[in-house]
Amino acid sequence: MPVSYMIDKKHRLILTIGDGSVTVSEIRNHQDRLLSDPDFDPAFNQLIDVTTATRFDMSVDEAKQVALRPIVSPKSKRAFVASKPDIYGMGRLMQVHHEPFAEAQVFRDRKSALKWLGFNDDSDLLDNSN
Fold this sequence. Notes:
globular; about 35% helix; alpha/beta
């Protein structure tokens, strides 16, 4: 599955992983799964790690629509990590549209994103995906 997630209730964190070619329908499906998950809390922060994604197969308008869907609360922080320049750029576009709903930041490496979210590293974060 190109988009998977885990919810770390102890650390109040949603970890989303995008792998390979990620489509807008897979992102929407991911959002739907999150919203129906009994462990989901919109007040949790979210780390979206797409460093293993090879491409985002979506238009600029589709990316805007995904970013405009309010999933997390305005008190949440959302960190987006991408190493490929085109995916990083799409993340920046989504950040602009998402900021009215929650604080968002785009990073090139996971360590910086984790630090921004208040973690020293991810060694004690759970590693089970949905």
